[in-house]
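Hi R.,

Here's the chain you asked about this morning:
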Amino acid sequence: MFVIILNVILCIRPIHSVWACVRSCPANCVCTQERSCSVLCDRAGLTQIPTEFPCEAYSINLDKNSIKFLSERAFGTLPSLKSLSLNHNNISFITPGAFKGLASLIELKMAHNEYIRYLHTRTFISLKRLIRLDLADCNLYNIPDRIFIELPALQELFCFQNNFRRIPGAIREMENLTHIYLEKNKIEAVAYNSLLGLTRLKYLNLQDNRINVIHDRAFQDCQQMEYLYLNDNFISDFPENSFDGLKHLKMLNIGGNLLRNVSNTWFRDQLELEVLYLDRNRISYIEEGAFENLTSLVSLHLNSNNLTTLPFSVFQPVYFLGRLYLFRNPWECDCRIEWLKEWMENYRLVRDIPCTSPSSVAGLDLTDVYFERTAEDFCLDPKELNVTSYRPFPTGEIQSTTENKFNSLISKLLLQKGLSEEVVNTTEAFSNTTFLNGLTNKVSLGLGECHVKIIYIFTILLLIA
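And the predicted structure, written out as tokens:
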């Protein structure tokens, strides 16, 4: 009997909760029991915040409306609200204290509001439990330095695709921040104090900005960093101790910059680094020892640079890595990279290394290059062809023009003898016979193609005579 009564009591509460959630549901919205009480007002054509929400609301979705203004206590008092989304609206002004009454809020999304250009220092007052804040793709040029002072629990900050010219000072000393997204802004430098006090930061994305300067020890407080994106900027060099202390770094992306060399001082502390992107730079030289401490590396991207060789002495310490990307470089396929050919054949973890030189192997993939050896088993570089003998003209266009001139000369000589078009055609056909081919082959052994043309002319003149 007691079990039956208990089951009745347990069933009454959810039914009441569902009824309460639906009873206070705003017009044009849908309220469901998902996650206690979810209020779905997205795409509802709203121009302002509804005046009343269910007190039990756990999440509110107001995405893709035309809301322009948030007044003080815009949502009333909602003690159970954990998630609030205002993405894709026309919000232009947020009154200080607009989110008062939302003491339990964990996630606030306001991305894609292009008219938000200014935020008051007290915009987010009372959101002491907020963990995730999304301000991506607004039109912010800056935010007040003390705007996050009352957000002690903040861990994830999304501010990508705005107009910041510097890393916001507001993030300094935010010791609980673990993820910061600042890609696609207009940031020009990472100053020595830009990331001050971010002792728990694990993920920092600064890709696709205008960064041209990284100050000395700019990342010194970020000892827990695991993922760092600095790709697609204008960085031409790093201070020698830029990444010192980042011992837990697992992925570093510095591709798409203006680097010309790789220093052996950059990666001294990265014993746990697994993926390194150096692609799409202008790298032509890698200092010996540059990779010697990267004992955990499984993927190295060096494609799309100006590398002509990769000495084994530079690469030897990470000989065991999983993937090596080297395509789109002007490789000189000589004995200096014979070791790489052997490694490619043995492990099959590298491919697509087209040779640029020597000319005898230009256009071939390194895997197709044969290295001859001396009697003492020393490697011999592929020979540089005699371009004059084998390819008398630097371009097909010039060669074609020269052939046209010879053909024109032959035609004029034939016309002077009063030969018909039929004889000319017969002569052209005759020029392809075994006799002339044999003659051509013999002559071409010691003469260029131009000399062969001359032999043709004299042969034809003899036939005509």
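Residues 387-464 form one domain.

Let me know if you need anything else.
M.
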